Amino acid sequence: MTLQDKLTTTKRTHILNAAARTFAEKGYHATTVRDVARAAGVADGTIYNHFQNKYALLLGLFTQMTEAAEPALNPAALTGLHLRELLREMLDQPLQSLRGENYELVRVVLSEALINRDLASAFRTGLLTPMLAGTVEVLRRRGDLRADPEDTVRLLSSLVLGLLLQAALGDEELQETWAVLPDRLADLLVGGLA
Amino acid sequence: MTLQDKLTTTKRTHILNAAARTFAEKGYHATTVRDVARAAGVADGTIYNHFQNKYALLLGLFTQMTEAAEPALNPAALTGLHLRELLREMLDQPLQSLRGENYELVRVVLSEALINRDLASAFRTGLLTPMLAGTVEVLRRRGDLRADPEDTVRLLSSLVLGLLLQAALGDEELQETWAVLPDRLADLLVGGLA
Amino acid sequence: MTLQDKLTTTKRTHILNAAARTFAEKGYHATTVRDVARAAGVADGTIYNHFQNKYALLLGLFTQMTEAAEPALNPAALTGLHLRELLREMLDQPLQSLRGENYELVRVVLSEALINRDLASAFRTGLLTPMLAGTVEVLRRRGDLRADPEDTVRLLSSLVLGLLLQAALGDEELQETWAVLPDRLADLLVGGLA
Amino acid sequence: MTLQDKLTTTKRTHILNAAARTFAEKGYHATTVRDVARAAGVADGTIYNHFQNKYALLLGLFTQMTEAAEPALNPAALTGLHLRELLREMLDQPLQSLRGENYELVRVVLSEALINRDLASAFRTGLLTPMLAGTVEVLRRRGDLRADPEDTVRLLSSLVLGLLLQAALGDEELQETWAVLPDRLADLLVGGLA
DNA sequence: GATGAATGAGGTTTCATTCAT
DNA sequence: CATGAATGAAACCTCATTCAT
Description:
Four copies of one chain form a homotetramer. The first copy, chain A, is mostly helical and 194 residues long.
């Protein structure tokens, strides 16, 4: 990678970060390309030297998101844990990985994915499916899981997404108990409700 | 209610249905007021005789949604059931109540709620909170629930929302197992994973 | 005139008064036909049973104005006065005749007349010209006027219009001295400035 | 001022001139932004790169008017004249300064000022008040003025405005005698009517 | 590659006018 | 004659995108 390339990449990232901030604040549709340009400190036209169009900014952010989430998709480190701890981690990790800036981004991308078939598809194949697949593998290798691994994964993933959605919708009570929630839910899941 | 009122209400509903269809198909932002007018078979200006502006159409749909969901919020009929059956119903009912037209609407409203603070707030206070409150009551009165009712409700609601979100994102595998999923998840929850 | 005619005339006048109020408050262009209808307490469509279109309302008001001003156009009563008194009356009368509601109307009609050739023409032939003509006659018959009657009329009419315009533009200082102004200006005019 | 600034200023002025022409021809309200754009030979959107909205065009014209009238507001050159000549100039100058393009503009701006409080206020403080103030000063320093300077100014300004208004309303007779009118009126004023 | 003025299609909304009731 | 919902043309304005500098 030449210096030139590096500069280019830097500016691309710089613009993408600006887009992340503005999209997060006002949403994709309410944000103008000019908003992004101003936030990045560049001219309107410069955006188009790095991205084909406004939508490409959103796709770029989505890609950034999936790449950031990838480490969490390969839960090799979870092998030695007790089942309760494992569940706790499986609930906690996704939630933790989305704190801060990324958290706002999920809102924006998710919002658009709910409407845009392509983005929804990319969301599933790029994020959900690999996450589930990796998790199924981990569960399958364990001996202490009485339940069907696939059902368990479905349960866990739905739980995580549901929690995420509620947080994204501004549920403050949820965010306050965010710290202890994985523990308590893991307890419930392990022992059963009856 | 006079005849005139009835006609007015009818047309309002008619327009709202047209809005539901177009919004569901193209999303709120990509839909023009003219699209809605054409779908309703009226002139552009007629929309504004019944709704203050385009956003009021979205709000109208949201209200329609909450009113349609209200029956599901008062689970009085669930008193005599076994715990497993109760859980099954609690998972199944919300999912069932959103089949068909309403199902598409959730996508649209949810998409906008993720970005619009007001709508998010309305979504929580109009749908989520009453649903949770009703459910907590039902659980509290039972003697066979070992777990904390509030935690249980949090668990169930997150599960439902997560499933809903996945379905909204087009997860076909989920939709295929939709029929048996409540049963299987209820089993898992009652007995625990270990 | 039958009773029916009287009722019709009454309603026409009623609507015209409503139009006067609303036009005076918001101006002709910023006033909607619905505004007028609401002010008159009738339905939108009723306006069109009495006036061909919105512009006809303005014309109606203009006609009303000229008819109201007509008495002032025939200054038969001014024959016996001293010159100074005559001038004072000639300045004072037009200003007085426009107090209250009519005063606001002048603003509206004048505003439109400045742009609309037809209205401007009607304004001149219906108001200005007859006023000038009548005044010239009165002046001509006097022996104590040293100056040319036509020039004098031009002077007086311009003065009146200028004062009117300044008042219409909201000159508060002018309105405060409104009571004594004709006297003082008449003094100046009779004696000369040198 | 850089070249870029100059170009920008030029285009702003260019658009403003186009607005002047179209407003003068059809009036402010009957003129569409598209009309102005066409007259300026630019695209609709370009207007908004130089003016915030349609009303800003009117304000721009008003400012242009006041700036054009400013030289006439400082009558320093009138010190050495005889009273009769002074009056003649005071009547003539404002009328002369509004010939040609500006003359049409007065019609448009005045028309709107009669309805719009803000514009009326700006009209008074930006044009009338400074004109009057400057004139009072000049009169005060003279010894040959028998009359009260403030009354005299009020008389003169009203006269000028009245003449202007009549001209704006299309009084052709007035426009024909426009050349000799200041002379004759000055005579009347100096000598008095009796 | 960077700039930002220019573009013009297209969006939302208003409102004078009509007409069936 | 009165009503007021329906109409749809047309207005103002935005903004993604282009391109000459």
